[in-house]
Design goal:
This protein is mainly β. The protein has a domain of 79 residues: Roll (Ubiquitin-like (UB roll)). It is built from 2 helices and 7 strands. A 5-stranded mixed sheet has the order 2-1-7-5-6. A two-stranded antiparallel sheet has the order 3-4. Strand 3 and strand 4 form a beta hairpin. The radius of gyration is 14 Å and the shape is globular.
Length: 113
């Protein structure tokens, strides 16, 4: 299993021609991040990191597959445990995202497992 973390990865996507879109502030794995208005969650993450998440079985890096909401390879979660398809969900101000599964049982019991 690789020990390579998202935070040490270079961005997978690079913006080449941008007009003046408003910045959108959100958090990713507890860290402040900025995207541009109109970005999908997938774009917002991949302009800052080389991967979206790691496969839960093989632990290989994943960055989305079909990019149109059909394959379900791009699921991320909010801090509250809600699942979102990163490729078809637009980034929103204040969105708190996790690329690793949130322990929903701990959330439901206030941290008491």
């Amino acid at each position: 299993m690789s020990t390579h973390t998202m935070s040490s990865s270079p961005a997978l996507l690079h913006r080449v021609a941008e007009k003046s879109r408003a910045p959108v502030h959100f958090t990713l794995n507890g860290q402040p991040a900025t995207a541009l208005q109109g970005d999908t969650v997938l774009t917002a993450i991949l302009t800052q990191h080389a991967q979206l998440r790691r496969n839960e079985f093989s632990h290989e890096p994943r960055a989305g597959f079909c990019l149109m909401g059909a394959c379900q390879d791009c699921w991320v979660q909010t801090d509250s445990g809600e699942r979102l398809r990163a490729c078809s969900t637009f980034i929103a101000p204040g969105l708190a995202l996790r690329t690793e599964p949130v322990d929903t049982m701990a959330l439901a019991t206030g941290g008491q497992a």
